[in-house]
């Protein structure tokens, strides 16, 4: 819990601050008061203060002197000044001393609470960094003491195909090396795979934290009781091989799953990572290689579930029934630079497939390839070369990593959309104003188009835009909008059987009578007669 210190020589000011904010709801368990610097220092000596709210002018020294002392003796404390002095030099000095904010009395308590929340965020982030540093330091020393970790050579050779997985050959090798395994034993394989680290780690830090994961896994009661052996199979992935000759299926799985769930919670909290545990089925020694391959497939195909224990016996598959999206509409949005709308549609699809039980990486790879193909087509249509737009991004991110999970794919897609739309906008800057206006009108034809909205899109004054557009096209903007709406309506009347009221709405008219009037004025026919005469001709 957090500790707060309020320092002000005015008693009513201190009490007002204390009463004006729900400190307990913000996570403070201790609220301390001081009316001069001497009292403040005494409180710092007795308590670990997280956040300091301080006045500037006080007896026995000012707030700047106190903050300088705090920076030296309690550098992790976040400090805020609350004063009556609207003096730039004071504010400048506060910033130089590292104060988070400089607020003037009387302060609104909502503003004070917002600033305190910001300070809490910084305090918590610093505490998390310190916790990580302490955890890393502890396991670094353990790693130094026990490195290299000796893995049973037999299992390494078996899983890496250095020895044939035939029963006779295995028995011969066991006898030769005096390994106490026999053909009545059954082994249960559990793969523990890190999905992501909450922090960006160096390669060395990652190795140390993997050792921390391994060290904690060795302490699980089910691992100890079943003579568990741990094998590092790749970066971020461990195998626990349990001797389960006496394994009771129902109770054994329940106990193991409970231990693994507790292990996952601990890893989230102390080792700053998300992971999943993939549990195979009891298997004789000669079938362990096949089981290892099956568990590896489980791990590879999991793209939606995180921080869970997944049992092979309950595994379901379902992605073959999920269709990939048709991306023609997405390509149109991309061509028009509608980034927000495109993101919303992609997010809606990806959020939807997250809920499908049995979803695997096959669908994500298909989505990745189709989406990339759609991007290439749009860039080609716009006269842009793909390698100039995002070559560095693609080189730095391999498809295997992008399709590791729905969340990883969504992050990559959103980044790619940002990059591509940015280049498209840059390319459009060189287009004539009229061409950009026509594109905007085409994308918003069914909306209430105003001259001001269109002018805002091209960043021009409405009157100036009107003159430019008329000069380049020979039409006013309103005449062009009417022309496009009528042309679009004519096409739908002839080529579709949609109700005329729907067509009117599709081209921006909510009032059918007004649509009919404008259509007849432009074509000489009302919509019904136009449809009949043209369909007869066809």
Summarize the structure.
With about 550 residues, the protein is of the alpha/beta class. It has helices at about 10-20, 35-45, 65-75, 90-95, 110-145, 155-160, 165-175, 205-220, 220-225, 250-270, 290-300, 330-335, 340-355, 360-380, 385-395, 400, 405-430, 435-445, 450-455, 460-475, 475-495, 500-505, 510-525, 525-535; strands spanning about 1-5, 30-35, 50-55, 80-85, 100-105, 185-195, 230-235, 235-245, 275-280, 310. It is flat, with a radius of gyration of 34 Å.
CATH class category label of the largest domain: Alpha Beta
Helix % is: 55-70%
> What integer value in Å does the Rg equal?
34 Å
Low-confidence stretches: 145-151
Structural class from helices and strands? alpha/beta
Q: What separation lies between the terminal Cα atoms?
A: 78 Å
Strand content: 5-15%
Overall number of structural domains: 4
- Mean pLDDT, all residues: 83
**Number of E strands:** 10
Strand order of the largest sheet: 2-1-3-4-5
Compute the number of helices.
Answer: 24
Question: Per CATH, which architecture of the largest domain?
Answer: 2-Layer Sandwich
Shape field: flat
As for the CATH topology of the largest domain, it is: Alpha-Beta Plaits
CATH superfamily of the largest domain: Reverse transcriptase/Diguanylate cyclase domain
Tell me about the largest β-sheet: 5 strands, parallel
What does this structure look like?
The chain has helices spanning 11-20, 37-46, 63-73, 88-96, 109-146, 153-159, 167-177, 203-218, 221-225, 249-270, 288-301, 328-335, 339-354, 361-381, 386-396, 399-402, 406-428, 433-443, 451-457, 462-473, 477-495, 500-506, 512-523, 527-537, and strands spanning 2-7, 28-34, 51-54, 78-83, 101-104, 187-197, 229-234, 237-243, 273-279, 309-311. It is an alpha/beta fold and 538 residues long. The protein has four domains: 2-124, Response regulator (Rossmann fold, 3-Layer(aba) Sandwich), CATH 3.40.50.2300; 153-314, Alpha-Beta Plaits (2-Layer Sandwich), CATH 3.30.70.270; 321-416, no CATH class; 433-537, Arc Repressor Mutant, subunit A. It has a five-stranded parallel sheet, sandwiched between helices. Strands 7-8-6-9-10 form a five-stranded mixed sheet, with helices on both faces. The longest helix is centred in the first third of the chain and has 38 residues, at 109-146. The radius of gyration is 34 Å and the shape is flat. It starts with a strand and ends with a helix. Keywords: DNA-binding, Phosphoprotein, Transcription, Transcription regulation. It comes from Paenibacillus aurantiacus. Residues 435-533 form the HTH araC/xylS-type domain. InterPro entries: CheY-like_superfamily, Homeodomain-like_sf, HTH_AraC, HTH_AraC-typ_CS, Sig_transdc_resp-reg_receiver, Tscrpt_reg_AraC-type_HTH. The modification 4-aspartylphosphate is found at residue 55.
């Amino acid at each position: 819990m957090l500790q707060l210190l309020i320092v002000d020589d005015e008693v009513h000011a201190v009490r007002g601050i204390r009463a004006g904010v729900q400190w307990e709801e913000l996570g403070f368990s201790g609220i301390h008061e001081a009316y001069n610097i001497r009292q403040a220092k005494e409180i710092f000596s007795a308590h670990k203060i997280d956040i300091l709210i301080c006045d500037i002018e006080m007896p026995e020294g000012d707030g700047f002197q106190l903050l300088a002392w705090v920076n030296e003796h309690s550098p992790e404390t976040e400090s805020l000044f609350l004063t009556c002095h609207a003096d730039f030099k004071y504010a400048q000095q506060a910033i130089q001393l590292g104060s988070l904010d400089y607020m003037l009395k009387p302060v609104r308590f909502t503003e004070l609470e917002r600033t305190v929340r910001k300070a809490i965020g910084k305090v918590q982030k610093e505490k998390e960094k310190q916790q990580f540093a302490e955890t890393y330091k502890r396991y670094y020393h353990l790693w130094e003491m026990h490195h290299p970790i000796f893995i049973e050579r037999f299992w390494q050779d078996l899983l890496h195909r250095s020895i044939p997985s035939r029963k006779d050959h295995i028995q011969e090798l066991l006898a030769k090396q005096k390994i106490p395994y026999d053909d009545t034993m059954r082994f249960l394989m559990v793969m523990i795979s890190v999905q992501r680290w909450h922090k960006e780690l160096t390669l060395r830090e990652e190795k140390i934290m993997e050792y921390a994961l391994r060290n904690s896994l060795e302490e699980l009661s089910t691992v100890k009781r079943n003579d568990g052996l741990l094998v590092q199979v790749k970066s971020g992935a461990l195998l626990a091989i349990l001797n389960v000759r006496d394994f009771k299926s129902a109770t054994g799985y329940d106990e193991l799953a409970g231990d693994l769930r507790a292990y996952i919670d601990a890893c989230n909290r102390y080792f700053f990572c998300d992971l999943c545990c993939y549990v195979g089925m009891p298997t004789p020694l000669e079938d362990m290689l096949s089981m290892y391959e099956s568990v590896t497939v489980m791990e590879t195909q999991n793209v939606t579930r995180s921080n869970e224990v997944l049992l092979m016996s309950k595994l379901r598959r379902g992605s073959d029934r999920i269709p990939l999206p048709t991306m023609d509409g997405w390509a149109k949005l991309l061509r028009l630079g509608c980034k927000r709308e495109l993101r919303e549609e992609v997010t809606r699809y990806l959020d939807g497939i997250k809920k499908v039980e049995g979803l695997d990486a096959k669908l994500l790879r298909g989505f990745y390839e189709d989406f990339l193909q759609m991007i290439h087509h749009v860039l080609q249509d716009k006269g842009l070369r793909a390698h100039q737009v995002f070559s560095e991004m693609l080189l730095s991110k391999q498809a295997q990593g992008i399709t590791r999970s729905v969340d990883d794919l969504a992050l990559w897609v959103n980044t790619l959309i940002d990059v591509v739309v940015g280049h498209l906008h840059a390319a459009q800057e060189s287009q004539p104003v009229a061409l950009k206006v026509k594109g905007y009108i085409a994308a918003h034809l069914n909306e209430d188009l105003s001259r001001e909205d269109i002018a805002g899109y091209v960043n021009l004054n409405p009157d100036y835009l009107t003159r430019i557009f008329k000069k380049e096209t020979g039409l006013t903007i309103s005449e062009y909008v009417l022309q496009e709406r009528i042309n679009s309506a004519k096409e739908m009347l002839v080529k579709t059987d949609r109700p005329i009221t729907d067509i009117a709405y599709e081209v921006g008219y909510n009032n059918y009578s007004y649509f009919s009037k404008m259509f007849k004025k432009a074509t000489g026919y009302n919509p019904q007669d136009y449809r009949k005469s043209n369909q007869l001709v066809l």
